[in-house]
UniProtKB/TrEMBL annotation:
InterPro entries linked to this entry: HtpX_protease, Pept_M48_protease_HtpX, Peptidase_M48
Protein name: Protease HtpX homolog
Transmembrane segments: 12-34, 40-57, 150-171, 186-207
Signal peptide: none
One Gene Ontology molecular-function label: zinc ion binding
Native species: Streptomyces davaonensis (strain DSM 101723 / JCM 4913 / KCC S-0913 / 768)
Length: 302
């Protein structure tokens, strides 16, 4: 079913290209592991198991990792009311509503399709935003579900996760720490680690390029659906400023999920790090919303 969120051909094309390139990389990666480890059954079964688990249980895993819990209407009537209105306006199924008891102001959407989706907000976000600002943030998250880029990011991140785990396993288990291993075994493990590191680096860059674009696409779709780009701009400014003031140690556990967040769980970023960021800069997002506001003839302030 097509929602009323405006479709984005640029996003669709980028998702297709990213999945195609990562699919090729995945085939090469699995093939290399089979040749090096000489056990295709083990490699295929483990890879398929991880991919299936990430696709089918991504919503539960994300909620568990971020301490989110599903909440009923009686507990958060205003939050449910906003999600109800936006779902009806967008003509899409209402997602499961969840809340994470974190002071960090943020939100994310996850799930494999619009019929199996979750939208989660933190208590820090609910405490800081006005109703019209919260509506803008939730419209942004719902657009991720409608565009299906949540599922694409989930699947796309799988390869990098596996490659990263292999690299970490090789490092922390001290495979090259001087134990009794023959030279052939050392060469095999060194090659596996090298291939895994290369795969992780390539998938890392591909996913971040897609992630930055999908955030701009979600901002556009949310602003056009609600007709209030200034509300979303206000929420972005407020949330980004408050996250920058949260101690870094409190953000570290959340940074692994930056690709899913409304804004990244980071303080002020130097210009160089933006090349590797999951999100476009705040200036880019506000500039785009300002242009949309002018096109709609909306006042600069909500």
């Amino acid at each position: 079913m097509q929602s009323r969120f405006r479709s984005d051909r640029g996003l669709t094309a980028r998702m297709g290209v990213t999945l195609f390139l990562l699919g090729l990389l995945y085939v090469v990666f699995v093939g290399a592991l089979i040749v090096l480890l000489k056990s295709w059954v083990l490699v295929v079964v483990v890879a398929a198991g991880f991919l299936g688990a990430q696709y089918w249980f991504s919503d539960r895993l994300a909620l568990f990792a971020m301490r989110g819990r599903v909440v009923e209407r009686e507990e958060y009537p205003e939050l449910h009311g906003v999600v109800d209105r936006l779902s009806a306006l967008a003509d899409m199924p209402k997602p499961v509503v969840a809340v994470s008891d974190l002071d960090m102001p943020n939100a994310f959407a996850t799930g494999r399709n619009p019929d199996h989706a979750v939208v989660c907000v933190t208590t820090g976000l609910l405490r800081r935003l006005e109703p019209h600002e919260l509506e803008g943030v939730l419209a942004h998250e719902l657009s991720h579900v409608a565009h299906k880029d949540v599922a694409v990011i989930t699947v796309a991140s799988f390869l990098g996760v596996i490659a990263g785990l292999i690299v970490r396993f090789a490092f922390y288990s001290q495979l090259f720490g001087g134990g009794r291993r023959d030279q052939n075994t050392a060469v095999v493990f060194a090659t596996v680690m090298g291939v895994s590191a290369a795969v992780y680096a390539i998938s890392f860059l591909l996913i971040r390029a897609l992630s930055r674009y999908r955030e701009l696409a979600a901002d556009r779709a949310a602003a056009l659906l609600t007709g209030r780009p200034s509300a979303l701009a206000s929420a972005l400014t407020k949330v980004s400023g408050d996250i920058a003031r949260i101690p870094t140690k409190d953000l570290r556990t959340a940074q692994a999920f930056n690709a899913f967040y409304f804004t990244p769980a980071l303080g002020r970023e130097p210009g160089f790090s933006r090349l590797f960021s999951t999100h476009p800069s705040l200036e880019q997002r506000l500039d785009q919303l300002g242009r949309i506001s002018a096109e709609l003839g909306e006042a600069a302030a909500p």
